[in-house]
């Protein structure tokens, strides 16, 4: 069987390795635009800050590792078209035949139509090449004032990196708060306050209308001109769908797939940032552009191609980050998005400590849990705290994936030791707050 993968990122690389484990004889070929296989895009801001020393350090495995697995690599190669009738991929280096084709074509940074966005000193943060360009620019021009356009995960992590390098940082966001798709106003405020303590300032409800100078020397926010000698555009990403669309596959915001990750052509699969899947709360189609999702998709697609009855579950989009030592974990629907979707919810919120009050060294933690009123099920959570957020948000996400109710979380069996956690965990206390509001 000839299996061709278009895309050498997280989804494509992991698929090739999973597929090789399941089928030792299949001919597996990976076509990728970049010169390397999988690296971690989530690590890129930490390369800029210097926490990770070199861009090359985020490459997961060298190309030779895949070649030893008898995976054929066609890197620095662009897939131009898919001929579904002949079952070939047309590239800039010739045609590649397939029996099964996997589209792992990822996403691209969205560049808004801002005057001057192409000027020198204006960057996106999506690839290793972006990081190399940013680091070279910083080394050469030693910028002192950075403006970040967009207050999502990448924008905030970029802002942190610039601040750690000693820059004065301003984040500009069109919405009224940071991380607007992941946090509600109350939890977003906690993150904002912590970042402001570290010198990052914010402007909400406005956009950058112009970037002035090349190299950049200022940005225009409304009628105000603000000094800047480096600009990061972090206004989200868009799924790469053109290849699929031109091949006649069904496409919305992403490439439409079924529960087995097959496209409208059953011999073609789509995985990773480009694939449109099902939201676990609303039941609507959504994008899940997370590295963890990409790996799970890769596994399901490989197993299904290998003949197993594997299905990809609807997503809660569980995510976590850390900014200046503050951990932020989230999944599922927010309070505000639930209202827009017409979903009645009950919310519980608790602010406490990561350790018993009598034990020194505890750090503040805020837990917000969201339950659907109709069936009492857990459908979302936001946790902001100084430590151990990861374990708590993972626990709640796992419970939600299993259909847990408010009572399940209230009476959850947890672990306790004074140096580690309180006797009643904050997630159970937050759920208790919600339980009291049910009628």
What does this structure look like?
It is a single chain. With 439 residues, the protein is an alpha/beta fold. The protein has three domains: 2-42 and 52-106 and 240-306, FAD/NAD(P)-binding domain (3-Layer(bba) Sandwich); 109-236, FAD/NAD(P)-binding domain (3-Layer(bba) Sandwich), CATH 3.50.50.60; 319-436, FAD/NAD(P)-binding domain (3-Layer(bba) Sandwich), CATH 3.50.50. It is 27% helix and 28% strand. The protein is built from twelve helices and 26 strands. The strands form seven sheets. A five-stranded parallel β-sheet has the order 3-2-1-7-19. It has a five-stranded parallel β-sheet with strand order 9-16-10-11-12. Strand 25 and strand 26 form a beta hairpin. The relative contact order is 0.11.
Concise summary:
This protein is of the alpha/beta class and 439 residues long. Helices cover 27% and strands 28% of the residues.
- End-to-end distance: 58 Å
If helices are DSSP runs of H or I spanning 4 or more residues, what is the number of helices? 12
Q: Quick one: CATH class of the largest domain?
A: Alpha Beta
Any idea what the shape is?
globular
Report Rg: 23 Å
Physical arrangement of strands within the biggest beta sheet:
3-2-1-7-19
Count structural domains. Answer: 3
Counted beta strands? 26
Strand-residue proportion: 25-35%
Largest sheet: 5 strands, parallel
CATH architecture of the largest domain: 3-Layer(bba) Sandwich
CATH topology of the largest domain: FAD/NAD(P)-binding domain
> Which structural class best describes the helix and strand composition?
alpha/beta
- How would you name the CATH homologous superfamily of the largest domain? FAD/NAD(P)-binding domain
Give the fraction of residues assigned to helices: 25-40%
Mean pLDDT: 97
Low-confidence stretches: none
């Amino acid at each position: 069987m000839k299996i061709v993968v278009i895309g050498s990122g997280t989804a494509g690389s992991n698929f090739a390795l999973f597929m090789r484990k399941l089928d030792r004889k299949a001919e597996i070929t990976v076509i990728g635009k970049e010169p390397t296989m999988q690296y971690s895009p989530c690590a890129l801001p930490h390369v800029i800050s210097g926490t990770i020393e070199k861009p090359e350090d985020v490459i997961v495995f060298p190309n030779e590792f895949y070649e030893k697995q008898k995976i054929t690599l066609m890197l620095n190669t662009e897939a131009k078209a898919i001929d579904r009738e002949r079952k070939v991929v047309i590239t800039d280096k010739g045609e590649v035949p397939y029996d099964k084709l996997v589209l792992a074509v990822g996403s691209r940074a969205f560049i808004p139509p801002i005057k001057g966005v192409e000027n020198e000193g204006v960057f996106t943060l999506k690839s290793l090449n972006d990081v190399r360009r940013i680091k070279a620019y910083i080394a050469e021009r030693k910028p002192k004032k950075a403006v970040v356009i967009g207050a999502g995960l990448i924008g905030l992590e970029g802002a942190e990196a610039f601040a750690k390098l000693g820059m004065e940082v301003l984040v500009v966001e069109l919405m009224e708060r940071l991380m607007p798709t992941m946090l509600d106003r109350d939890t977003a405020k906690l993150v904002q306050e912590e970042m402001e303590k570290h010198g990052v300032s914010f402007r909400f409800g406005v956009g950058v209308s112009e970037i002035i100078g090349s190299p950049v020397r200022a940005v225009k926010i409304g009628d105000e001109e603000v000094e800047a000698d480096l600009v990061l555009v972090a206004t989200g990403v868009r799924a790469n769908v053109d290849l699929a669309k031109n091949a006649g596959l069904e496409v919305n915001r992403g490439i439409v797939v079924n529960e087995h990750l097959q496209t409208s052509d059953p011999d073609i699969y789509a995985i990773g940032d480009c694939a449109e899947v099902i939201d676990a709360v609303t039941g609507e189609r959504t994008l899940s552009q997370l590295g963890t999702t990409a790996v799970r998709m890769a596994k399901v697609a490989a197993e299904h191609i290998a003949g197993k009855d594997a299905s990809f579950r609807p997503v809660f989009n569980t995510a976590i980050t850390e900014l200046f030592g503050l951990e932020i974990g989230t999944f599922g629907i927010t309070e505000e998005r639930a209202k827009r979707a017409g979903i009645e919810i009950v919310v519980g919120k608790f602010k406490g400590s990561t350790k018993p009050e009598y034990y020194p060294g505890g750090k503040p933690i805020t837990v917000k849990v969201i339950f659907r009123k109709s069936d009492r099920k857990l459908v979302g959570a936001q946790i902001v705290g100084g430590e151990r957020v990861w374990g708590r948000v993972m626990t709640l996400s796992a419970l939600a994936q299993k259909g847990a109710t408010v009572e399940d979380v209230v009476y959850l069996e947890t672990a306790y030791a004074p140096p580690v956690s309180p006797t009643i965990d904050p997630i159970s206390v937050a759920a208790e707050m919600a339980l009291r509001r049910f009628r």
